[in-house]
Write a structure and sequence with these properties.
Elements: E1 10-11, E2 17-19, E3 25-29, E4 32-39, E5 43-51, H1 56-75, E6 84-90, E7 93-99, H2 106-111, H3 121-140, E8 157-159, E9 165-167, H4 172-178, H5 188-197, H6 201-206, H7 212-228, H8 236-244, H9 252-260, H10 263-279, H11 290-301, H12 306-323, E10 333-334, E11 338-339, E12 344-345, H13 359-362, E13 373-377, E14 386-390, E15 396-398, E16 410-414, E17 417-421, E18 436-440, E19 448-450, E20 461-465, E21 468-472, E22 483-487, E23 492-496, E24 507-511, E25 514-518, E26 530-534, E27 539-543, E28 554-558, E29 561-565, E30 568-569, E31 572-573, E32 577-581, E33 586-590, E34 602-606, E35 609-613, E36 616-617, E37 620-628, E38 636-645, E39 649-652
Parallel strand pairs: 1-6
Antiparallel strand pairs: 2-4, 2-10, 3-4, 4-5, 5-7, 6-7, 8-9, 11-12, 13-14, 13-39, 14-15, 16-17, 17-18, 18-19, 20-21, 21-22, 22-23, 24-25, 25-26, 26-27, 28-29, 29-32, 30-31, 32-33, 34-35, 35-37, 36-37, 37-38
Helix pairs in contact: 1-4, 3-7, 3-10, 3-11, 7-10, 9-10, 10-11
């Protein structure tokens, strides 16, 4: 696998990031605003914006400091660390472009009066374990010296939609200083105060340089809030008095929690409390390291019933949705129009202004609580089936059946609509299709036919670019090199330039607005060749070949790289995975292999994880779903579908 530390510090155009001028702000701090935006190749993302004063020198210094934060995040690449894509800049402002996490932050959840009663010990344990795991990784992943976060607090612990922890904001305080901005924004004083509440005594009293022991102390105060669901100090004055006297927050609320617990939950609460007390020791040398905290809490976590944990998550998520319903978000205005200093989008109606969101209310005003899911369409023995699988609950939900049963079809999602093209019946000679159909997943109650393709195709490839659907190759009893595109607005199919090689059972993906066709079969042998189509010039170009020829492979794009997964090789079904890095024009073997060799599976990306579903292995149709992320770099079986999946197609819900 490629070294993640070589990832490019990428600049995104502020003109290509669209915002909703009424519901755009999702948080504020002393540095400025966090804006919800949408990018055509990423989807929804968060922009942590800084107002910049001064000239080119100040801007260059700020960019260097942002690059430092990005490098720290790359070095600490982990499943419990927030993902950063790069940066963007526009008039008077610069911003870090981050993944958007729909669950808000941990502070908002823990202090919500409606949610508090529904926080069970198991979920608190998972939070505590994931915090320790992320911080332990930060402290041990440095090269010349340990990395330090330096600003651990519940506001910097973001939550995924299924309530997993993502540690964010490395170096934010330094960045805020170097913007040169003196503009006060709502919540700034509170932000300073809240950071103080989690700071170690040696930091605030003696001005000691950041060390990992200070992160450990901050985690102790976070654990206090996790158990008590209260702020650690009533005021800044109370904080200074207690910190100077060497005292710690009052634990009456934790004692009350323990009195109300059953025996099993009491063991969990006492385990977290034990580490809280050890970690807030006033002597930094006597505080434990976070690896010890992680290992002990993990031992408790693995004993929990997964079904019970899932139920605890669902209860909290349901309450979050009830108390903070999702606000409609309609991103149409480029980020480049936003003035962070005034909170207004310039060049649009003057009465439209970012709302005065507080850190508490803004963090969850835009949450999306649908769990990640994929939709399986067609396939052998399920020709007309359309089944949604929630990857958290792992339960199937049958959607409206296809009009036409299809095996070896292909599908692409454009906005909320899924388009299914081509395929064949179970008996190839009885029916192969030019027909196509579409359904809107926001109301998945009816499929509609659209104009047929120009060519009969099964096992073709498809992708969408700029309101057009591109279909490549496939088979109609002979292997095809011809291709065509469907203009969605014009409702019409037209031919485009032929591929350099005839191929079917190949993979087709879109990466950076280029269409890639990977491997496949020419009708007599598996192919290693790959090619790329530029829609603007209508030109196909050869790119580096796969290391192993394969057909019937699955393929996805994740973090700008292309993954070729499994397939049928010279010696049968394959378990190997290759990663293509476009900038280097190079395929590299991914060291972890699939747990089960498989071909004619299907694959999609959800929450920055690759899901590979079904397929066949030496004549046996498979039900297993394997999942991989770059953070863990391990393939694991997530669950099994209700029925085997073979020659189906999949889209994210």
């Amino acid at each position: 696998m490629a070294d993640t530390n070589t990832q490019e510090w990428r600049e995104y155009s502020a003109d290509e990031i669209l915002c909703d001028i009424r519901n755009g702000e999702i948080g504020r701090g002393g540095f400025g605003s966090v804006i919800l935006g949408k990018h055509k190749s990423i989807g929804f993302l968060a922009i942590k914006g800084f107002s910049v004063t001064g000239g080119e020198r100040e801007q260059a210094m700020l960019k260097r400091n942002m690059k430092h934060e990005y490098d720290m995040l790359l070095k600490s690449h982990h499943d419990n660390i927030a993902h950063v894509y790069g940066f963007t800049k526009w008039s008077g402002s610069i911003g870090i472009v981050m993944q958007y996490y729909e669950g808000g932050n941990l502070k908002v959840l823990l202090l919500d009066e409606i949610i508090k009663p529904h926080l069970r010990a198991g979920l608190r344990l998972r939070f505590a374990t994931e915090i320790a795991t992320g911080v332990a990784h930060i402290h041990t992943c440095g090269f010349s010296k340990p990395l330090v976060h330096g600003d651990m607090k519940p506001e910097n612990l973001l939550l995924t939609r299924d309530l997993h922890i993502k540690i964010a904001d490395f170096g934010s305080a330094k960045l805020a200083v170097n913007t040169g901005s003196t503009t006060r924004v709502q919540g700034q004083q509170e932000g300073i105060q809240m950071t103080l509440f989690y700071a170690a005594p040696e930091k605030v009293l003696q001005g000691k340089r950041p060390k990992k022991e200070q992160d450990v102390y901050s985690c102790a105060i976070i654990y206090y809030v996790l158990l008590s669901c209260e702020m650690p100090y009533l005021s800044e004055d109370a904080f200074w008095q207690m910190i100077r006297e060497g005292k710690h927050p009052d634990c009456d609320a934790i004692d009350e929690l323990k009195r109300c617990c059953n025996d099993a939950d009491l063991i969990i609460i006492e385990a977290i409390e034990k580490w809280m007390i050890m970690c807030w020791n006033n002597d930094p040398d006597l505080r434990p390291n976070m690896e010890s905290v992680r290992d002990d809490l993990h031992e408790h976590l693995v004993r929990q019933d997964p079904a019970e944990m899932l139920e605890q998550v669902k209860i909290v998520v349901d309450k979050m949705e009830e108390t903070n319903p999702l606000a409609n978000n309609n991103p149409t205005t480029p980020l480049s129009h936003l003035s962070l200093s005034s909170g207004r989008f310039e060049g649009v109606s003057s009465d439209l202004q970012l709302p005065n969101a507080t850190p508490d209310t803004a963090s969850r005003s835009k949450q999306i609580f649908d769990f990640p899911a994929f939709v399986l369409i067609g396939g052998f023995d399920s020709e007309r089936e359309c089944i949604k699988y929630d990857v958290l609950t792992k339960r199937p939900e049958h959607l409206q059946s296809l009009i036409t049963g299809r095996i070896g079809a292909t599908a692409v999602k454009v906005g909320s609509r899924v388009y299914v093209v081509g395929g064949a019946t179970k008996h190839w000679g009885a029916g192969q299709y030019t027909s196509c159909e579409v359904m809107d997943l926001t109301e998945p109650t009816k499929w509609h036919m659209i104009p047929p393709m120009l060519e009969v195709r099964r096992y073709c490839g498809t992708g969408s670019i700029e309101d057009c659907i591109f279909v490549t190759g496939g088979s109609n009893n002979q292997t095809l090199s011809n291709c065509e595109k469907f203009n969605i607005k014009g409702n019409k199919w037209t031919g485009i330039k032929n591929m350099l090689h005839a191929r079917s059972q190949h993979a087709c993906v879109v990466c950076n607005d280029l269409l890639y066709c990977i491997g496949g079969s020419d009708g007599s042998k598996q192919l290693s060749s790959c090619e790329r189509y530029d829609v603007r010039s209508d030109v196909w170009n050869e790119i580096a070949p796969l290391n192993q020829a394969r057909s019937g492979l699955a393929c996805v794009v994740l973090d700008g790289n292309i993954y070729a997964i499994g397939g049928l090789g010279e010696n049968g079904p394959m378990s190997t995975v290759e990663q293509y890095i476009p900038e280097a024009n190079k395929w590299e073997q991914l060291l972890p292999q699939l747990q089960v060799a498989r071909c004619f599976s299907c694959s999609c990306v959800l929450d920055n994880k690759i899901f590979v579903i079904g397929g066949t292995n030496n004549g046996k149709m498979l039900s297993s779903v394997e999942v991989w992320s770059s953070e863990t770099n391990v393939w694991s079986t997530s669950f099994e579908t209700a029925d085997p999946v073979f020659a189906a197609t999949v889209v994210p819900f």
